[in-house]
Amino acid sequence: MYILLIEDDQQAAQCLMDGLVESGHQVDHAADGKTGLDKAMTYVHDILIVDRMLPGYDGLSIIQMLRNKECSTPALILSALGEVDDRIEGLRAGGDDYLAKPYAFDELLIRLEVLLRRRQSKVYEDVLKVGDLTLNLQTHDVNRAGQGIRLQPKELRLLEYLMRHADQLVSRSLLLEKVWGFQFDPVTSIVDTQISRLRKKIDKGFNTTLLHTIRGKGFMISES
Fold this sequence. Notes:
- By secondary structure, this protein is an alpha/beta fold.
- It contains 8 helices and 11 strands.
- The strands form 3 sheets. It has a 5-stranded parallel beta sheet, with helices on both faces. The chain has a 4-stranded antiparallel beta sheet with strand order 6-7-8-9, covered by helices on one side.
- The model has no long low-confidence stretch (mean pLDDT about 90).
């Protein structure tokens, strides 16, 4: 598993990372809420482990913002707040599991395995398809007409958002918000640059163009 750990207590984070690495997992670490949110939005992870009390954005806010941006990566919440109401609040915020501190490391591992199995069991429900282009949301495999396509993490997020809204016009400002997390237009050509790179990968060499630019309005992925 590739795990993103968002934990501000350096000693606790290091102990947990050491255990996870020894158990055969890869771990990416963020020590505050803003960095954690940025990493979760920028890179593809199998599971998130999110401390509830964090500097910057708190853990529940991070998960809510990710869910609002259609990021479905499973999230395990860690917290010293372990009452029933606290757990309910965490799950309602979009968490997939909730583990109160202090906890047994073996129990945490089992919970992560359950979350991963649960995610993998949805693999056949989580394949986006537009024409002969498919995107597996669990394995992140992109395939067109039997040919595999390698995408960078941001290209993958951009393609996923467009495919989730196939046949719909998506504006630059909406992509800036949903894919890059900008709440304002920073006056940049980043969207057009990434669209150009993505188009070369999914359309070049194929008979049908799927990724369309609607001049002055935005972009659309569609068979027609």
